[in-house]
């Protein structure tokens, strides 16, 4: 337990993160020039002010993933771990139409706590190379993630899914239980019946709706719903972080393909999940009701639930220190139990 305490004594708190952001911003473009971004990222990454987003963006890599639905390997974006730990790796998914940059605050805390951590972009979103556009339906997303795991991660994961990423995680673990040791679901969007009526839209209407998704105004409105209270300047910068991947020429095609495919409908798969599961929920989530957190807790056979006060829909963005502590404790709890058993003999 001493090691865990020490790790978090050194890890930055939410307040520390905020102060670091302010300090870095005040230093201006000189600080920004020190960072070298991968050439495949949209050039607009240079205009993002968020220091943590910029730093994580420098670590985004592309790995080849061979899939049955494409003649060529898909160069797939992710952030790879710098360390290998004795515990199984933590693999972070993201929410709907987002990217690995969603983990800009929590990822470094997990790494500082000694966890081997991946942040993976779901097929069709994020920063993968989709110039030869593959299908981006649920089955393709699942196979792509499985092949990435099989080729590069190779060990049972502690799989973390926020918002729609929780549906991705449940669909994945129901089909590939051998790949997942434990599950963490954050403000889980798992009871929606796919994309609903959007799946029946004419393509021209679907493209119009998808085009709206990348607008600054819509992203600002979503930030109002998702977070308990941030300044306009922060909200604007976070909107630019959230829509960066939308600037690829294939993003609209990939998102429309997902929309008309019907999307995720995983409510019937929830009880198939046998893995130990940690449910994390922002107490002030205005997007998904806390009642659904209670329902999910009841339906998962081996789950615990933890609420984070004064927090909205994305705790890993808004309360990274709290989320990191919960994940680290969940990952390491069995190790401590083993140590306690051994010490009794």
TrEMBL record:
Top-level taxon of origin: Eukaryota
Protein name as annotated: AB hydrolase-1 domain-containing protein
Annotated ranges, domain AB hydrolase-1: 90-325
GO molecular function: catalytic activity
Coiled-coil ranges per UniProt: none
Gene name, Swiss-Prot/TrEMBL: LOC115978951
């Amino acid at each position: 337990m001493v090691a865990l305490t020490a790790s978090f004594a050194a890890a930055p708190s939410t307040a520390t993160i905020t102060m670091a952001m302010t300090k870095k911003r005040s230093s201006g473009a000189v600080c920004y020039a020190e960072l070298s971004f991968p050439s495949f990222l949209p050039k607009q990454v240079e205009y993002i002010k968020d220091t943590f987003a910029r730093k994580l963006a420098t670590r985004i890599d592309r790995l080849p993933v061979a899939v049955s639905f494409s003649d060529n390997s898909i160069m797939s974006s992710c952030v790879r771990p710098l360390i290998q730990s004795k515990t199984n790796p933590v693999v972070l998914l993201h929410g709907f139409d987002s990217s690995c940059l969603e983990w800009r605050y929590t990822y470094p805390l997990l790494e500082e706590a000694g966890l081997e951590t991946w942040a993976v972009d779901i097929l069709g979103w994020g920063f993968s190379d989709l110039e030869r556009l593959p299908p981006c339906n649920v089955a393709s997303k699942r196979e792509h993630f499985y092949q990435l795991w099989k080729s590069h991660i190779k060990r049972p994961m502690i799989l973390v899914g926020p918002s729609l990423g929780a549906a991705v995680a449940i669909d994945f673990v129901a089909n590939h239980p051998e790949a997942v040791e434990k599950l963490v679901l954050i403000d889980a969007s798992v009871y929606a019946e796919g994309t609903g009526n959007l799946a029946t839209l004419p393509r021209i209407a679907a493209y119009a709706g998808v085009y709206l998704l990348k607008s600054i105004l819509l992203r600002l409105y979503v930030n109002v719903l998702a977070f308990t209270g941030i300044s306009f300047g922060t909200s604007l910068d976070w909107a630019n972080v959230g829509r960066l991947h939308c600037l690829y020429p294939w993003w609209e095609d990939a998102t429309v393909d997902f929309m008309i495919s019907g999307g995720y409908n995983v409510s019937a798969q929830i009880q198939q999940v046998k893995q130990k599961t940690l449910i994390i929920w922002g107490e002030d989530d205005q997007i998904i009701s806390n009642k659904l957190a209670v329902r999910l807790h009841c339906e998962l056979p081996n789950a615990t639930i933890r609420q984070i006060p004064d927090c909205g829909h994305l705790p890993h963005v808004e309360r990274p220190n709290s989320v990191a502590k919960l994940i680290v404790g969940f990952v390491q709890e069995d190790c401590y139990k083993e140590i306690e058993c051994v010490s009794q003999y």
